Amino acid sequence: MAKDHSFYRKKARALTIMRAKGIKGDWLSSLPHRLLWKAGLTFIPPCFARFSSNMLIFGLFYSLLWGVVMWFMFWQRQEMGIVVAVLTALLAGALFGLLMALLYRWYRKRHALPQWHQL
After folding, report:
1. Per-residue pLDDT of the chain (119 residues; tens, 9 = 90+)
2. Exposure pattern of 13-42 as b/e (b: 16+ CB <10 Å)?
3. In 10 A of CB 107, how many CB atoms?
4. Cα atoms in the Cβ-side hemisphere of radius 13 Å centred on 86
């Protein structure tokens, strides 16, 4: 996979802008984004990403993590069917993804951050 140097320059600029505005912690980069970056994938930081992208990333991450935990801790013992478990995890992930996408959109507007293409 070829490195997209313009992405890395924009990402560094985006993180610098956020730090200058006093943004810290997970608002800079969420756990799913940090894991994707470590895997070498070029996903836009969540405060600069599109609503649909944030919803998808957060929703899938939550569905997978929460679904696996729930399966091994509760659902398997309750003899819940795998289809019902997957659908429940996907629904929970969709709701979580929607909430996180809304929060990041609000946070971007609150701090008057520029659009990704403006970096």
Report:
1. 446 789 999 999 999 999 999 999 889 999 999 999 999 999 999 999 999 999 999 999 999 999 999 999 999 999 999 999 999 999 999 999 999 999 999 999 999 999 999 99
2. ebbebbeeeebeeebbbbebbeebeeeeee
3. 15
4. 3
**pTM value?**
0.90
| Alpha-carbon span 113 to 118, nearest angstrom | 10
Structure tokens at 55: 């919803």
Residue pointed to by tokens 């890395």: 8
Helix/strand/coil (H/E/C) assignment for every residue in 1-65: CCCCHHHHHHHHHHHHHHHHCCCCHHHCCCHHHHHHHHCCCCCCCCCCCCHHHHHHHHHHHHHHH
